[in-house]
Amino acid sequence: MALFGKxxxxxxxxxxxxxxxxxxxxxxxxxxxxxxxQQGLSDDQIMQSLQQQGYTSSQISDAMAQADISGQxxxxxxxxxxxxxxxxxxxxxxxxxxxxQSLSLGEKDRVEEIAEAIIDEKWNELLQDINxxxxxxxxxxxxxxxxxxxxxxxKSSFDSLHKGILGKISEYDQNLVNVGTEIKxxxxxxxxxxxxxxxxxxxxxxxxQSRVK
Length: 213
Known about the structure:
By secondary structure, the chain is an all-alpha fold. Helix content is 82%, strand content 0%. The protein is rod-shaped.
């Protein structure tokens, strides 16, 4: 938008500048500058006033330099310049954008370009940071998913081991029951056999003793 506005103003100046402002000769307005300085005007005010009269920035800069030199070499000459007629601020023609205003617009466009470049750079950095956060989030979620799967696997293994241990304990219990049953059966057998076996042993002992005598 700033470029379009600048172009429009340049076209307006091209159409009306020749009729509104008379062309200045190559003579530099040194005396006029010295007179304006005597009136207490600042350099910016002097430059604006001379631009309204059609002088270029280069002419004004050269004239100001010569006026400074002349003021330093002959301070008496500045008093004579006070009587020189100067255009009244109320009688000045409409303000015309000169090279200084154009330069300001150019600087404004340059500032806008720099600002846009900085914004683009910061935006790209922000996008990169966001992408890094997204990648970190995805990696973290994948890691959590793996940990959850490992926990499920461990739980499943523990359940299987628990069932296996319970099965072995039940089997051991059954074996103990069977052994107890067998022991009881053998006890009953011994109860039946032991008296006869004891009697036979005693009989053999008596026979052996009688033969020895």
